[in-house]
Amino acid sequence: MTYSIAQAAERSGLSIDTLRYYERIGLVDPPARDAGGRRNYSDEDLQWLEFLTKLRTTGMPIRMMREYAQLRHRGVGSAGRRKQILVEHRASVLERIAELQGCLEVLNYKITNYEQIESKMDTLLTHYPEGATA
Question: Which InterPro entries does the protein's record reference (predicted)?
Fold first, then answer.
């Protein structure tokens, strides 16, 4: 099946401008063109875009994505380097997850603290309906 650039953008969650940019910098191979010269993306193209989106979402720099994309064209001979890129990136993703987990723990602590304050205020207002300032 083939998709227009608008359909590919919709399905991938990327903008048309981003698709063109990815093509221009070599992350995406130029898609096939129809008789009118319009881009036609394949299911394989969309799978590659989905993978690129995962890499970008996890913070992989464009420079590394470009290296990976270039290596991909070399076939199985580049599998070792591609694996190395992904292993290194996975390590940085795991570090970021740990950092975010620590941040989440602080947020949860603060939220719990405010819930306790609100609960104490509600108790005070229940026992002293005219206000806690009396």
Answer: DNA-bd_dom_put_sf, MerR-type_HTH_dom, MerR_fam
Domain membership flag for residue 92: no
Q: Is residue 124 assigned to a domain?
A: no
| Closest among 70, 59, 64, 68 to 97, alpha carbons compared | 59
CA distance 89 to 100: 16
Check if the beta carbon of residue 70 is closer than 8 Å to that of residue 26.
Answer: yes
Domain count, the chain: 1
Q: Which domain holds residue 61?
A: 2-73
pLDDT tens per residue across span 63-93: 999 999 999 999 999 999 999 999 999 999 9
- pTM recorded for the entire structure: 0.80
